[in-house]
Amino acid sequence: MLTRTLTTALLALASVSTATTASAQQIELSNQSWSVEVIRDAGQPVIPLFDGWYPNDDGSKTICFGYFNMNKAEALDIPYGEDNYLETDYPGLDLSQVTLPSHFDPLPPRYRHVFCAFPVTVPADFSVYNRITWHLSSNGQNLSTPGKVIPPYVMDEPDSNGRGDRAPSVSLSEVGAAVRGRTGIHSDGVIDARVGQALNLEAWIDHAEPEVWVGWSHHSGPGTVDFDRKEYMTPTGENTSIQASFSEPGDYVVRMQTIDSIAAFEFYCCHTNAYFHINVSN
User: Fold this and answer.
1) Which pTM was predicted?
2) Which residues contact 109 (CB under 8 A, 6 or more apart)?
3) SS3 category, 36
4) Each residue of 189-236: pLDDT tens digit?
5) In the chain, what are the domains?
6) Which residues are paired to 99 by β-bridges?
7) pLDDT in tens, 97-111
8) How many angstroms separate the CA atoms of 197 and 255, rounded?
9) What is the CA angle 215-219-224, rounded to 5?
10) Contacts 24+ apart (CB under 8 A), 223-229
């Protein structure tokens, strides 16, 4: 599936309009061919990626978007607005409630592509001709990728019949409802936190395997978020927790992803997203 990842990245590159200025380390996209040589410590853009889509039991469909930060050391914050937004040609579709990321960590060393960072659910009559387009501009380069519901990009969700795999089940409280899959689960209400004070975030994870991979990320919000641990294997059938601290007041989203093995990301199945909505005050 690595080939699919690279192909998707190339499609995103093909939709680029390149700005006239660039940093010293930046390689203009018009002069790039796809290889690891275009990855730099800093100065490169974040590539928005359409990962695929899946049907839901109620007839609706969910489109998944991920991203590829081409920088090994540079994290980028891209506020919502003219540099980071969604648009659609489907009349009347409200995209204002989508949990769009605005913070992009440096290139993960082991799996690179951040898979299905956020989903967008569309009505049953969203056709193969309709599009949701994610526009993302960074380091002087303007990129976009169209999300669509065409058959070649349909994904298994939350189970893969071909690989016999299944997404972990996640609950955000010990007795709360559990969810499997990329549509994910959101915290029940907003969690209060204070600047500079550690906040405990936890989830209950279950899976047929005795342990699963868990990764935590700063999804959106001002300032920086520090985690006492970001990626690890954890036993299933019990809760896992981390400590997060925030440098500035504001509204944040922390994203947790879990999958049985990090290598399984390359098969585009099967992981579960969880989103913690946090208000940080002084």
Assistant:
1) 0.86
2) 72
3) helix
4) 999 999 999 999 999 999 999 999 999 999 999 999 999 999 999 999
5) 2-153 (no CATH), 159-281 (2.60.40.10)
6) none
7) 999 999 999 988 777
8) 19
9) 95
10) 223/247, 223/248, 223/249, 223/250, 223/280, 224/248, 225/103, 225/252, 225/254, 228/198
